[in-house]
């Protein structure tokens, strides 16, 4: 029996029990470090949340069913179920209809159910809670029949991907282009050209599916074929900030000294990684993929810190580091090797050619942050930096393809 089938049976049985007992509270479903929350009122589904991208998911569902829906940030709080409460307010203010709100809730629930049933093992825990019983709340509830319909839809979607051998592709990942020219020369079809425009390193597969208005299977099938040809990478990214937190982000950014950090690495994904981690904290990032041609740009930029890859096609990081140390401009600028190689020999040679530090490419945001703060902002405490990082983004930016 496949993992999605087992996951479906477990979730279906749990939902059936909750519905029959007509209980009110929260069902927490977890796998590894991921957790989803299903909120119930008298056995009916109130709201589904959690997983990797609850905020992205909410925006996506709203855009699908109510593209013209606008809201004020001051309407929001950081309290539990802010998304649901925002929908209630929108209904009360006649910004959206009850049917539109229910469509949003169904779409969100389907994505959450899809994510849950595709996990190989699940733990479940029930938390009794009280919820509002206002007329609007009661009208928005998904009944037992509707829950079954949404779960069945998620199962069909999961099964179709499994039948095509695509179940290992997580729709929450973001495709990034490795070779644009080769991608466009591969096939001149309208769908490929449209997909290429959407591959900007910001949209997940779910997002691309919405933009293209075609099935998740079709988008995943195309992207997987590009991945096998080495035309794209698939990476995991952090969720968007909830609107209320995003409103306060400028104050966070201003509290950090603006410094310039250069990344010399032929890999596009490495530059994107550092950009996602460091830029929200107020640092400027310069990514140089061609170390020879980029030296002039590097001298003009005059960075405060340089991340340097060890293995590159045209020249090694050792050679670049040694050259920079012989140049007056870069004699005192911290240089940190950022490499997938991590032997004692590598670290020793790095010191010999003048590097200040050596960081293994584990893609751990906290380790990267610690190195940055060590060399560009030593007076700023690491705990303060981590706190700012957590406020800015809940980072889990990990490359999943080579």
Can you offer a commentary on this structure?
This protein is of the alpha/beta class. 34% of the residues are buried. It starts with a helix and ends in a 10-residue tail after the last helix. The strands form three sheets. The chain has a five-stranded parallel beta sheet, sandwiched between helices. Helices cover 49% and strands 15% of the residues. The protein is elongated and about 75 Å long. The chain has three domains: 3-163, no CATH class; 174-235, no CATH class; 248-392, 3-Layer(aba) Sandwich (Rossmann fold), CATH 3.40.50.
Physical arrangement of strands within the biggest beta sheet: 8-7-9-10-11
Whole-number mean pLDDT: 83
Count of individual helical segments: 18
Number of strands: 11
The value of Rg in angstroms is 24 Å
Tell me the overall shape: elongated
Order of helices and strands: HEEEHHHEHHEHHHHEHHEHEHEHEHEHH
Runs in which pLDDT lies below 50 for 5 or more consecutive residues are: 247-257, 379-402
Biggest sheet: strands, sense, closure? 5 strands, parallel
- Give the structural class: alpha/beta
Distance linking N and C termini: 30 Å
Number of structural units classed as domains: 3
> Helical amount among residues, as a percent range?
40-55%
Q: What fraction strand?
A: 5-15%
